[in-house]
Structure formats: C-alpha cells, structure tokens
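Quarterly update from the structural biology core.
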Amino acid sequence: MKQFILIFLLLSSTSICANDLDLKMSIIKELYQLTPKECNNIRFNDSSNEKVHLGKLLFESKVLSGNDEIACINCHLDEFSITDGLPLAIGVNGMGEGMDRMSHGMGAIVARNAISLIGVGHKSFNQFFWDGKVGLGDDGNIYSQLGTDLSNKFSNALAVAAVMPLLERDELIGTSNANNDISKAVDEKLYNDKFNAVSGVIVNKFKNNGPGTKEINELAQSLGIEEMDLKTIGEHLGIFIANEFKCSESLFDKYLAGDAALTDTQKRGAITFYGEGRCATCHSGNFFRNNSFHSIGVYQGKFGPHSRHRDIGRAGVTFRLEDLYKFRTPTLVNIKNTPPYGHNGSFETLEDVVIQHFNPVYIFSEEELNNKFLDAGATLGSRDPILGAIRITKESILKDLISFLETL
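Predicted structure, tokenized:
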C-alpha cells in the first residue's frame, strides 16, 4: 500500500524536469506492464489469400443490399481511417462518400457513429458495436440478437458482427417503404427469422448469377463453397476485416520497444493519462479499451435508435436500468484520425471529447444551457463515478494529454 501511495504521489507531482519525466515513464511502463501491440495476433490468421479476397469482394459488393446500391465499404473508407468521417452514418438511399452522403439529403440516417474497423480482428476484441450487441460471453457463448444457437454456428463473434448490418433496414435492407426482394422477405420478422429470410434472398441472387455476382461466384466455386448464405458471408467478411484492417505500429509502440523517443510534451501527457487523468482505468491494455461499458454523460442529440429518438446504450441490449446510457469503451488506437467522436458523433475534435470526461457542460451552447427543457439530466446522472476523480486543471495539461493521445 505504501508503495502504491509513493507511486501515485510521484506521478501526480506537477514539478517536473526532464530526468523526472524519464523516471516517471519508466515507473509507468513497469506498473502497467506496457508493451507494444501485437498487430498480427488476429483471428483467421491462417486464412488463404483467396479467402481474404473473397471477403474483400463481399465487403465491396452492393449485391448484399436490398436495392443493390450500398456496400459495407460506403461507411468504412481508407481516407477516413476505415470510418465514414460523419457524425452519424448515412445508409440506404445515400449517394457519394463522406460529407457527400450527408449533403445529398436523401439517405437514411443510421443513428450511431461508424466505428473504425482497424484492429478489431485482434483476438482480444470480444465486444462489438457501441452497445456490445454482439459479444463473446464469459461462458464461451456468442451473444447477439440472433440468439446463442444461431450465433454459435459462426466461428467467432467478429463473423457474427460482420453480418449484422445486412439485417438492418437503414443500413443495407432498405427503409420500410422499400420495394425490393430482401425488404419483402423480411417484412416484420424478428432477428432469427429475419436472418433466414435475408440469407435465402441473397443465396438466390448468387444462384441466379445476377449483376455483380460473377467474380464472387467463380472464386467461391474454386474454394468449394456451395451456397453464398449469410453464415458464409459473415465468415469471409470477418476474414477480410481481420487481415486487411490490422493495426499498425504507432509512435508509442516504437517508444515502448525502445526504437523511438517521445517529446517532453508527449511524456507529460502520458503521465497525466496514467496518473491524475485516470484515463487508463477504462482505456487499458495495448488497445486502450477494456471490453466494458461506461457512461461519460454524452448529450442525447436529435437522433437515436430507441423510442423518442433516444439512445439508451447498453441498456437496449441488457434491459437493465443500471446500463442506461453506457457505451463500449472505444479503442484509442489511431484515435487522432477518426473524428468526429462519441457514439453519436457529437464531438468534433479530440479535445472536445476529452473535455467531456471532466467537464460535461462544456459542450452545451449558451442557448442550450438557457433551455429549461434541456434533455441532459438523465445522461449526466449516469456518468461513471471514476470521472469525478479526474484532475485536469490547466489548459497546458489538456494540451499535453492530447499530444500523447496522438501518438497512439
């Protein structure tokens, strides 16, 4: 206990010279057992190039959508670090890429921010989507809206997660008034029956050698695949995502390996991150996330997937009151390249979302603060208690912290 108190006092000291920085960084590395990420430790690591290529073709294929007009790649683009660069994704009926999809004005709004796929194929990732609606349980079962029986037919949770957008109207099927074969087959079915309905239509699309199926069919045939059903599609999308979107070595990884140096500013930021900022409480490990769910009191905004345009977060999966407004801790890997931030994209900059952790009223405009009907009380009341212990008292400390985050 005395040793812990000594370390805490050392990391919390505000009087720092260069030698102190290096000493404190060495303590942090030992205390948190920090090592570089192992980016090649992925699921499907033994996959053939042909299987990866089949996954790529499916990832880019509009055949998987109801109206043959949208593919996975529309919301996960290289230029936006495998996101779409938008606060909220734009699904069916959208046109173009990035901001063009929003300015077009006809696309369906998907009421969550598109999460980057970089690194999600790593074997340590067991929870997917902002609310963790697909995940590997402690009992070894895969849990999702499909139910455990169907989910466990897949090889892993990433493969299940890969097919979930194909079962959502706003994302790939088509809105309620859409007139396509998938939408008609789905009708008002719930997830297990919806899965079978969508799978059946897509199987027939490929069997009938429709537009856009030729190359996929030829490659599938060479791999001995008899039917292009949703399970097969999910497995190969997972193979592609895991192999194509591996993380890369960051500046902080190189520093931990002894191959690069951090500036004094970045070191001070790291000391805040692991010390008085309490960031590592949730953003832990090599990927800076803990496979758990927390609330930082994000303002609801105008769109949400639940009733009255709300987003109740993890509670929409577990139906537990204590999970209201909680969301999965996102990885901080490559975080500087994936704005806007938050489950609803309400934070334009990295600085904005960091400030939200210790000052949740910062984001509100003067007009909103003067609105007595401001819908913020519930979400602010859900904030994780650990956030009350964060000590960011100077702008210089904030700037140092941001500088460190940009090395991850």
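The mean pLDDT is 89.
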